[in-house]
Write a structure and sequence with these properties.
- It is a single chain.
- By secondary structure, this protein is of the alpha/beta class.
- It has ten helices and 14 strands.
- The protein has helices at 24-37, 53-64, 76-86, 105-113, 156-164, 182-194, 196-199, 227-236, 259-264, 274-289, and strands at 12-20, 42-46, 67-70, 89-95, 99-101, 119-126, 129-132, 139-143, 146-147, 151-155, 172-175, 220-223, 240-245, 253-255.
- Strands 1, 2, 3, 4, 6, 9, 10 and 13 form an eight-stranded mixed beta sheet that branches. A four-stranded mixed beta sheet has the order 7-8-12-11. It has a two-stranded antiparallel ribbon with strand order 5-14.
- It is globular, with a radius of gyration of 20 Å.
- The two termini are 22 Å apart.
Length: 293
């Protein structure tokens, strides 16, 4: 069904959502795999794509049977805030547009736990872990624990309440060298960014002034997409997230990290081998799902 607003969706127990922003090919693969393995209604939201995505999915919608709508292009975190504020579903399965679900096994785990009273979500848990440079040795900042956002099922009512209390899926960084004054910490943090020699040193003599994060005292704490709302629900509101370590996600889903970022930030070389991914996606669509592109 073609819809103009989230409120037009039928109220459902489970609803999968895919956000497309100019990545028609891999989004089609994400859509086909979600329809095959998740076994729930799927909504694809097209956000101001200029590659013919909306026309492509409008035609495909009649064949595959999913919901389709247009929305303004937002930051990923802002789009998630909007979706959970308005969608008429009890549980939402987030499927990144650059994910191919490989089998239905992870959904058994999700459905086994998601309806427990004190569980707010299920999927994979990422972090906490240190940032590092490409060699893997020079520690930078510290990623807070978070849900693996490319494939996660969340209870809408619980997330919506957290949003109403001022929490968000938004990314944020916290400079931690001098916790009593965030202004001083930000000033020192800006100096660290300007001088790489400072960026990769924790300066242990400042530990007395840093907040502890699970016994560690990093100079920078990074809340990736969803980490702040995860922190609130798990460590303040006392809910649980049922998940496997994110390192094992490749047994259940193939994630083409960086495709959307490369589309939205052309020329920045954000890590995705676009030509190789395109060849793979076309072959998988043809051979596994009977869709030619």
């Amino acid at each position: 069904m073609l819809i103009g607003a989230l409120a037009e969706l039928e109220p459902r127990d489970e609803q999968a959502v895919i956000i497309n922003a100019g990545t028609k090919l891999v989004s089609t693969l994400a859509l086909a795999s979600a329809l095959k393995y998740a076994r729930m209604p799927v909504l694809l939201i097209d956000c101001e794509s200029s590659d013919g995505s909306y026309e492509h999915f409008s035609a495909l919608q009649q064949r595959l049977g999913f919901d389709l709508m247009r929305a303004p292009l937002r930051r990923h975190s802002a789009a998630l805030d909007w979706i959970f504020s308005e969608i008429p579903a009890r549980k939402v399965l987030l499927v990144d547009s650059d994910v191919e679900i490989l089998n239905d096994r992870i959904f058994g785990l999700m459905r086994d736990f998601i309806d427990e009273p004190r569980v707010f979500g299920a999927g994979f848990i990422e972090g906490p872990n240190w940032m590092s440079n490409q060699t893997g040795f020079a520690r930078h900042g510290y990623f807070e624990e978070r849900m693996w956002i490319p494939l996660a099922m969340l209870k809408v009512e619980v997330v919506r309440k957290a949003l109403s209390e001022g929490h968000s899926f938004a990314e944020r960084q916290v400079f931690n060298d001098f916790a009593p004054s965030r202004a001083v910490s930000r000033l020192f943090g800006s100096l660290r960014y300007r001088f790489p020699a400072l960026r990769h040193r924790q300066l242990r003599w400042l530990d007395a002034f840093k907040e502890s994060h699970r016994g560690l005292r990093p100079w920078l704490v990074w809340y990736d997409t969803g980490a702040e709302i995860y922190r609130h629900l798990k460590y303040v509101a006392d809910y649980q997230f049922a998940g496997l370590p994110a390192e094992f996600h490749s047994r259940y889903a193939h994630h083409f990290s960086g495709v959307t970022n490369n589309e939205l930030n052309p020329g920045r070389n954000l890590g995705a081998s676009i030509d190789g991914i395109a060849d793979y996606a076309r072959a998988r669509l043809r051979d596994a799902y009977g869709i030619g592109m």
